Structure formats: C-alpha cells, structure tokens
Amino acid sequence: MATYKVTVATGDMVEAGTNNSISITLVGSYGESCQTTVPFLFQPGKEKNLSVRCGQDLGPIVLIRLHKWRLFLEDAWFCKDVRVTAPNGTLYRFPCYQWLEGVTTVEVREGSGKKLVDDKLQILKEHRRWELAVAQQEAYRWKNFAQGWPRCLSVDSIFELDSNIQFSRIRATNFTGFLIFQGASHFLSGFLLRRTSWNSLDEMRTIFSRTQGRDIGGCLA
C-alpha cells in the first residue's frame, strides 16, 4: 500500500471557488491511482488536502487528471495548482492556472519544463500530441472575415470562447474604470466636445499635461 499526500489549491480571484464535485487521478510511470474525490467547498485562495491510497508504488508522478462534474447547477472552478508528495518524500508540482467548466476532465503535466525529446513514456507523448492536434485546434478555429482581409477567430462573440481564452473580467473591469476616468478628465480639461481647431501645439501640450497630472495624482493617492 502506497499513500500519496495531495494538496489542491484554488485561485484567489473572484468566483474561483466551486460547489461542484472535484476528483483527482494520479498517473505515474508504473501505473495510475483510482479516482479519488477531493473534499467539497472549494473557496477562493484556499487549499484542500487529501490522501490518495494505491495498492502499489506508482513510480514518478508524470500526470494528474482533474475530473469535474456538476451536482445541480454549473459552477466553474479555477484551479491554481496541485502538489503531490510521494511516500518517499519526493514533491511533484502540477501548475494548472485554468478554469474547469461543465463536466470535464483536464490532464496536467508535472511542471518540470521538459522538451518533446524528454517524453520517454507513451502516455506523455500521447498527451502532448492531444494538446497540439486536438485541444489547440478546438480552441482556435479561424475563418476569412472578407476577401483580402487577414483571417480571424471563427466566433461571433467572445462569450463563445473558452473562459481560459477570454480576457480576464477583472482586467476588463479595470480598463473600463480607467477609460471612464480618462474620459471625465478630458471632458473637464476641454478636450472632448471641442468644436474649434487647436490654436497651437502649446495649447495641446497644456491640456494633456493637465490630464497627466491628474492621472499621476490619482495614482499617488
């Protein structure tokens, strides 16, 4: 009997936690574990600890599988990383940093930064081939917008994209707030709604130097 200590970390961003069920499978060079359920109530910025018991030593842990399925309502989960401590004390780290949505299984490689030629195990070769040939092609589909134009993503809205591809909602909110602040600053300084031409470059410099001063002051405050 071999016992592995596992720590599952949830990201600290808003709505990163989930009430859906999460389980994990450890994949080693000698075999893989049974699917083991992680304790419920995943909260943002928190970690869950569990033990995964196997009938034999799995050898070096090369992959983990994270399984997510909904109980009643869909509740996406952002996994930060997973750490596995083997019976001999070896620590394996699996950086995830992605959203899991719906009923899904995600495979995460051990984070040692290996190259293609370093993949000796068939399961690692298959995983890399699947990432390139299936996952990437499904995520990035291209179409011709118009004759002579560059190709673009084959979606009608950004909401059709996977959450891991969409621009961060937090960053989008920050940019929106910044644009509102800039718009208000330009309006107060006389830049917006101006109906006449600039009298000189010095006048333009005066307007923008005032705006920049407000931005700097706001940052310092």
TrEMBL record:
Alphabetical list of InterPro entries matching this protein: LipOase, LipOase_C, LipOase_C_sf, LipOase_mml, PLAT/LH2_dom, PLAT/LH2_dom_sf, PLAT_LOX_verte
Instruction: Identify the residues that bind Ca(2+).
Output: 17, 75-76
Gene assigned in the entry: Aloxe3_0
UniProt protein name: LOXE3 isomerase
One Pfam family this chain carries? PLAT
Which key words are in the record?
A: Calcium, Cytoplasm, Dioxygenase, Isomerase, Lipid metabolism, Metal-binding, Oxidoreductase
Q: Known CDD domains for this protein?
A: PLAT_LOX
Q: Principal place where this protein is found?
A: cytoplasm
Domain called Lipoxygenase: residue spans? 114-221
Superkingdom of origin organism: Eukaryota
Q: Does the keyword Thylakoid apply?
A: no
Q: List the molecular function annotations (GO) for this entry.
A: iron ion binding; isomerase activity; oxidoreductase activity, acting on single donors with incorporation of molecular oxygen, incorporation of two atoms of oxygen
Q: Where in the cell is it found?
A: Cytoplasm
Its transmembrane ranges are none
Cite the annotated pathway.
Lipid metabolism
Family membership: Belongs to the lipoxygenase family.
- Which BP terms from GO are recorded? lipid oxidation
